[in-house]
Amino acid sequence: MKKLLHFLLFVSILGTTVSSYAVERGDPLKGQPAVRKRVLYLPGRFEVTPSVGVSFLQDYRHSFLVGAKAEYHLNDYLSFGFAAHFSPFSMNTGLTDEIQATLPNQLEDDTWVNPTPSKNAMMDALNEIKLVMGPHITYTPAFGKMGLFSTIFFNFDVYFFGGLGIVMFEAGDLSPYTDTPAEYRQAVTAGTAGQKLHIIVEEENGGLRFGPQAGLGFHFYLNSWMAVNMEFRWMYVKRNAAGFDRNGDRIYELIEAEGMVRDWVVVNAKDESWENTMFFHFGLSMFFPQFAPRSN
Amino acid sequence: MKTWAIVLFALFATWTLPAVPAAHARGADDDIIMEEDDTSKPAEEKPADGDLPADTDPAATDPAATDPAATDPAATDAAAAVAGDDKDNKTKGDDEDARSYWSDIKVVPRKLILKQNRIELIPYMGITLNDNLIRHIALGGEFGYYMSDAMSIGVGGHMYMKQQTDRAYLTGLQQRVLPTLNAYLYTATLNVNYEAAYGKFAFHNKKILQWGIFLSGGLGVTGTEVIPRNAAHEPWTNMNITIQVGAGFRVFINQWLTLWGGVRNYMMQDKFENSNRTQPDAEAGEKNAAARFINNIVFQIGVSVFFPTSFEYTTFK
To answer: Are residues B87 and B204 in the same domain?
Structure first.
């Protein structure tokens, strides 16, 4: 009986002690950083990223871009910078080719009745992206690493940015294909009227346009100071990509020689509309200073 | 009397002893030096590109780890951090106590989800990306079976709802051209998906999420319907053999749920109204249809649910 009592007391003490020990231990990871001893690629570093890019989801012309981005990283999460890209050349979209294929080679004889533009008139009216730039603020909330085919392992981060977007469009030129009321009167008098579109271009569809920009991107780090940069950039700007009238406004003129009133379509800034303009960039980011410290 | 003395002593010990290890544990907690990130000074150890060696060779750390990408930098780095900080501990006894905590932390944690022999259901919605004149919203789903942890076979499909864009209207107004358009009706494909990349990321260096990138290929059919230029003509439909290629990602939420997204190109040879505008009726239009190769690129996003919703790991922790 005595031995049994001693045994029960021993078990009681042991059990109570062990259980309380386990309860009181706590989680040593609680509140600690998820990753320690990691390479700090961003804080206090200057980033330069030369890149090439291409627009997509464009209606008429895809623009190819060459340029660079400069950015200073205040800390792990925030940075600010400026990007500028020039478009040395562009190419038709599928829609442009389809439209062009159905248009006549030259303007119709009676453009009052059938004002269908010719192939060249349609192409010359288009505006093109020549320069894309703007300041931005970047937020980098996440970093990580991944394995590709369980073979290649690399670090990456993902960032989001927003700012002011500035797009410079090269204007189309419809002037060889159009006439004004005064020119038409002269042509009627001279007997040479015809094969002109009756469009008054008050404002060209080129120049600088401003709007918001936003996007997201990835850095895939090759070493402590170089990374492959992939970036999606969205801009929202006003433009008249086709270069023709959109809202149907026109002016009416009495043509005395014909004894009738004619109407001219007006192309101006009111024919512009807000459009999504999107780009994909692929570049090589270089960080300075080249040494990247590690966290504790 | 002696027995009662023992009983009283034992009761005293039962009440007081638990406080000793608890206080000891708190003291040990205090002794673990967990410095905040300091960006101002270089680390003392040799800076290696990427991460700690244990991360780059998980098999060396844990023979049970079959997927190197399943290594956890958090745990690895944390364990290494403690090892590095041991010199700051005051006594050897405290060192051992501190290590006793960290010994519970796995250097190579398991993947969050094992997919082999599980079924995946993916309800998703999508939007077509590459047609300037007509946009489609897609609603559908995919059913897949994982033959291995990386490869699955399945069947998927969606219905489309069409929306003509402003440009479709403006093309008629500005270029005096009536566009030739087909509306998509449905797509159904047999798919093979392969998870080509697996990784993880830390959100604000606090929460670690695992994610993967998959490649997809498949074969199926797409139904389309001609939108006649002449509104008096009846539309006619096509059923086109479709080849699907794509890529996407998953962010793992728990053992049975992921956020899922992807971009897939459904390629087909579709038939359109002939650009010759003199079709007298719909029959003649269908007979003189013009074939054209179409890339129908669809961005899809949804959730994926794995069944059974739980599973057992096959390797030791």
So the answer is: no
Give the pLDDT score at B207.
Answer: 86
- The whole-angstrom separation of Cα A219 and Cα A228 is 6
Angle ∠(A270,A233,A242) on CA atoms, nearest 5:
30
Q: Is residue B23 part of a domain?
A: no
Question: What 8-state DSSP symbol labels residue A112?
Answer: T
B177–A102 CB contact, under 8 Å: yes
User: For residue B145, what pLDDT is reported?
Assistant: 97
B54 and B163 fall within a common domain: no
Go through the domains of chain A in sequence order and give each one's CATH number: 38-174+205-239+275-288 (2.40.160.20)
Selected residue with higher pLDDT from A175 and B313: A175
Which chain A residues in 245-274 lie under 8 Å from chain B, judged by CB atoms? 245-246, 273
State phi, psi for B152 to the nearest 5 degrees.
-135, 155
Q: Cα distance from B278 to chain A (closest Cα, Å)?
A: 14
Interchain contact, B166 vs A32, CB within 8 Å: no
Give me the pLDDT at residue B220, please.
98
Range of B53's domain?
Answer: 32-102
The answer to whether residue B233 sits within a structural domain is: yes
Residue B258 lies in a domain: yes
Q: B270 and B134: one domain? A: yes
B-facing residues of A in 161-220 (CB < 8 A) are: none
Cα B284–B289–B290 angle (5° rounding)? 150
What is this structure's pTM?
0.74
| Chain B residues touching A199 at Cβ < 8 A | none
A34 → closest Cβ in B50, B133, B202:
B202
Q: Which of B14, B51, B174 sits opposite A145 (nearest CB)?
A: B51
Task: Name the domain count of chain B.
Answer: 2
> Binning pLDDT at 50, 70 and 90, where does residue A30 land?
confident
SS3 A151: coil
Candidates B10, B34, B80; nearest CB to A32 = B34
Is the CB of residue A227 less than 8 Å away from at least one CB of chain B?
A: no
**Which residues of chain A neighbour B87 with C-beta distances below 8 Å?**
none
Mean pLDDT by 10 residues, chain B (317 residues): 63 56 45 42 41 38 39 42 43 55 58 87 96 94 95 97 91 87 96 92 87 95 92 90 97 92 96 76 79 94 93 71
In 3D, which of B13, B10, B6, B11 has the Cα closest to residue A2? B6
Say whether the ipTM exceeds 0.85: no
Q: Count Cα atoms within 13 angstroms, Cβ side, for B288.
A: 13
